[in-house]
Design brief:
By secondary structure, this protein is of the alpha+beta class. The protein has 4 domains: 3-151, Nucleoside Triphosphate Pyrophosphohydrolase (Alpha-Beta Complex); 153-210; 221-255; 257-311, Roll (Nucleotide Exchange Factor Grpe, Chain A, domain 2), CATH 2.30.22.10. 39% of the residues lie in helices and 24% in strands. It contains 5 helices and 13 strands. It has helices at residues 48-60, 117-122, 128-138, 154-219, 229-254; strands at 8-17, 23-27, 35-36, 39-41, 66-76, 88-97, 111-115, 257-259, 272-278, 287-292, 295-297, 300-303, 305-310. The strands form 4 sheets. A 4-stranded mixed sheet has the order 4-1-6-5. A 3-stranded antiparallel sheet has the order 3-2-7. The N and C termini lie far apart (132 Å). One of its GO terms (molecular function) is protein homodimerization activity. Belongs to the Nudix hydrolase family. Homodimer. One of its GO terms (biological process) is protein folding. This is Protein GrpE.
Length: 311
């Protein structure tokens, strides 16, 4: 065929890498039984990326996780390509990352292998164009394509894996720190609540003896004749004082403080303190008299009641 009748054929070459950084090689009669990579022509009306996705599906059955342009090369009368050794292919090369490695070949290939880049260079059954790619884009220190962009080879994958691991470690550390902070905040809130309760209890403890004395004094007011005008005035004063005493009692109730029951109840050493015993017809241990009132706050004894019990 004369050069005048030759045409440049636009095509794509697909370098498929898995998570391990291995490159997919396919053995094809087009390359005289040597291992190459999936490739194909760009059809009229489709983009190069669309051609990559189509050829990938047709020749391997794989789906791309990412597709990145790597390089442009010209295959001009490549003698290793026995299918059309006189052809001129203008090939755009793409690197494709896949997560699934279940390859399903079509009739263009005989077999396939996943191979590490270093091993590819040691083999005689791999075509030159693939070895050049490995040297330039997978094992190069610069790891740069001819277009100045990144060539996402196995080193990049390894670096990404390391970064992902570091990210997970940082995330775990952040989550632990956040949990520790929440626990600390909960502990501080608990301590604050305890401090408030202790402060309240201290104030109320100082207040309760005054309230007790108030009640004792009020209980001994004299009998009055309501028909007597003078006694009537005294009674009004006593009623006013009684109302004030009730207000004191309401304050205690607002803090869930209640008096411990005594007279008629059975003696309970957790709530009562026996100051003495008296002969009585009541059952032994029955509380006969209350000497000093006791208090409970939210079910907890804060001041025992002092009592006289039957013996």
């Amino acid at each position: 065929m004369s050069e005048e009748n030759m045409q440049v054929i636009p095509s794509v070459g697909i370098y498929i890498e898995n998570k391990k950084g291995e490159l997919l090689l396919v053995k094809s009669h087009k390359w005289n039984g040597k291992y190459a990579v999936p490739a194909g022509k760009i059809k009229y009306g489709e983009t190069a990326v669309e051609a990559v996705e189509r050829e990938l599906e047709e020749e391997t059955g794989l789906s791309p996780k990412s597709v990145e342009f790597v390089d442009n090369i010209d295959m001009i009368k490549d003698l290793e390509f026995v299918y059309k050794p006189e052809a001129h292919y203008a090939s755009q090369r793409f690197q494709v990352i896949v997560s699934n490695t279940d390859v399903v070949l079509n009739d263009e290939a005989e077999s396939f292998e996943w191979v590490q880049p270093e091993e590819i260079l040691k083999r005689d059954d791999v075509v030159t164009i693939v070895k050049d790619y490995v040297k330039k884009h997978m094992l190069s220190k610069d790891n740069k394509s001819t277009q100045g962009g990144p060539a996402w080879g196995w080193k990049v994958n390894k670096k990404l894996s390391t970064l992902e691991q570091e990210m997970l470690e940082y995330k775990a550390g952040w989550q632990r720190a956040q949990a520790d902070y929440k626990n600390l905040q909960a502990e501080i809130d608990k301590k604050k609540s305890e401090w408030v309760k202790m402060s309240e209890l201290q104030v109320l403890s100082d207040f309760m003896p005054v309230y007790d004395n108030f009640k004792k004094a009020f209980a001994h007011h004299p009998e009055l004749d309501v028909e007597n005008e003078k006694d009537k005035k005294v009674k009004n004063w006593i009623d006013g004082v009684g109302y004030i005493m009730k207000q004191f009692g309401d304050v205690l109730k607002n803090f869930d403080i209640e008096e411990i029951k005594t007279v008629g109840e059975m003696f309970n050493p957790e709530m009562h303190e026996a100051l003495g015993e008296e002969e009585s017809e009541e059952e032994e241990g029955t509380i006969l008299k209350e000497v000093d009132v006791g208090y409970m706050m939210k079910g907890k004894v804060i001041k025992v009641a002092k009592v006289i019990i039957a013996k």
